[in-house]
TrEMBL record:
<dbReference type="Pfam" id="PF00107">
    <property type="entry name" value="ADH_zinc_N"/>
</dbReference>
<dbReference type="Pfam" id="PF08240">
    <property type="entry name" value="ADH_N"/>
</dbReference>
<dbReference type="GO" id="GO:0008106">
    <property type="term" value="F:alcohol dehydrogenase (NADP+) activity"/>
</dbReference>
<comment type="similarity">
    <text>Belongs to the zinc-containing alcohol dehydrogenase family.</text>
</comment>
<keyword id="KW-0862">Zinc</keyword>
<protein>
    <recommendedName>
        <fullName>alcohol dehydrogenase (NADP(+))</fullName>
        <ecNumber>1.1.1.2</ecNumber>
    </recommendedName>
</protein>
<dbReference type="InterPro" id="IPR047109">
    <property type="entry name" value="CAD-like"/>
</dbReference>
<keyword id="KW-0560">Oxidoreductase</keyword>
<dbReference type="InterPro" id="IPR013149">
    <property type="entry name" value="ADH-like_C"/>
</dbReference>
<dbReference type="InterPro" id="IPR020843">
    <property type="entry name" value="ER"/>
</dbReference>
<dbReference type="InterPro" id="IPR011032">
    <property type="entry name" value="GroES-like_sf"/>
</dbReference>
<dbReference type="InterPro" id="IPR013154">
    <property type="entry name" value="ADH-like_N"/>
</dbReference>
<dbReference type="GO" id="GO:0008270">
    <property type="term" value="F:zinc ion binding"/>
</dbReference>
<dbReference type="InterPro" id="IPR036291">
    <property type="entry name" value="NAD(P)-bd_dom_sf"/>
</dbReference>
<dbReference type="InterPro" id="IPR002328">
    <property type="entry name" value="ADH_Zn_CS"/>
</dbReference>
<keyword id="KW-0479">Metal-binding</keyword>
<feature type="domain" description="Enoyl reductase (ER)">
    <location>
        <begin position="14"/>
        <end position="342"/>
    </location>
</feature>
Length: 347
């Protein structure tokens, strides 16, 4: 075991503080990653504050990890020392169920995937995330970061990127498709960039027009305020896909009315509160409400390669580790454009 520095929440809703954690020895199929940057995802805050369910504490959040391989196990074949790599939201799965065999490890039915933090591994030990100096991960759950992406802007792609890329690809977004992205935050701004790069006509639906200039700069063709009732009248029956990235309850009937026949509203934001859906809003035009998690490992690599090819990286604000708690407050206040990334050299 190796002792490394990290930032952890010692208890639910407690401020994060500098501490030390134990990392397992590098096994035969493991790689040791010197973490360079770790993104702050809103889900880090939900979990550190027990917003979704009871967590495992002390908790070291962070599932947007970018770094460099510093050691490999004797049977590793995919990576070498010095490789630029990333780790996302999961670090293992059962490997045996139909979904795992199909490259859908995120939907593992053999007990679910092992999450990068706030989970236990197959040995029953707690998993600790990227707000730390290094991490040991099985090579099968590590992805390569292409040279065309800087590590700091690539880190958020390991969650925000794949969380938006996977549903956009699954629902066939591309040229000739009209896509709306609800919310221009940490998830939404990456979703806009990716949808634009895929060739779709992209509209941002945000509560106000405060970020309109940013939205258009990032690749949106149109920008509307959802606080204006005329928006829902003007855009009725417009979109093939609506990607909802906000983590708050919406009036789903209003948003479903914006879909074309056979259109789909896909939810990737996860509110802490229960939400209500009016089934009558979907009748008549064969509209759907769905959801999507992250992507599998192969699709995550595909996403990174796509982003490198199209120059897509996250818009970030780089912070030191001592600023994590302030960053949490700013995220909940929507005061970030658009993703905080921790320089882990400051841990």
């Amino acid at each position: 075991m190796t002792t490394v520095a990290a930032y952890a929440a010692p208890a639910p809703k407690a401020p994060l503080e500098r501490t030390t954690i134990e990392r397992r020895p590098v096994g035969a199929h493991d790689v040791l990653i010197d973490i360079k940057f770790a993104g702050i995802c809103h889900s880090d805050i939900h979990q550190a504050r027990d917003g979704w369910s009871e967590g495992i504490f002390p908790m070291v959040p962070g599932h947007e990890i970018a770094g460099v391989v510093t050691e490999v196990g004797p049977e590793v074949t995919k990576f070498s020392v010095g490789d630029r790599v990333g780790v996302g939201c999961m670090v293992d799965s059962c490997r045996e169920c139909d979904n795992c065999k199909a490259g859908l490890e995120q939907y593992c039915t053999g007990g679910g995937p092992t999450l990068t933090y706030n989970d236990t591994d197959k040995q029953g030990e707690p998993t600790y995330g990227g707000y730390s100096e290094n991490v040991v991960v099985n090579e099968d759950f590590v992805v390569r970061i292409p040279d065309g992406l800087e590590l700091d802007v690539a880190a958020p792609l390991l969650c925000a990127g794949i969380t938006t890329y996977s549903p956009l690809r699954h629902w066939g977004v591309g040229p000739g498709k009209k896509v709306a992205v609800v919310g221009l935050g940490g998830l939404g701004h990456v979703g806009v960039k990716i949808a634009h790069a895929l060739g779709a006509e992209v509209t941002v639906l945000s509560q106000s027009l405060r970020k309109k200039d940013d939205g258009l700069r990032l690749g949106a063709d149109h920008y509307y305020a959802t606080s204006d009732p005329k928006t829902f009248e003007e855009l009725a029956g417009t979109f093939d896909v609506i990607l909802n990235t906000v983590s708050a309850p919406l009036d789903f009937a209003e948003y479903v009315s914006l879909l074309r026949t056979d259109g789909t509203l896909v939810n990737v934001g996860l509110p802490e509160e229960p939400v209500q859906i009016t089934l009558q809003s979907m009748f008549g035009q064969r509209r759907s409400i769905s959801s999507s998690g992250i992507g599998g490992i192969a699709e995550t690599q595909e996403m990174l390669d796509f982003c490198a090819e199209h120059g897509v990286g996250a818009e970030i604000e780089l912070i030191g580790a001592e600023e994590i708690n302030d960053a949490y407050e700013r995220v909940t206040a929507s005061d970030v454009r658009y993703r905080f990334v921790i320089d882990t050299a400051t841990i």
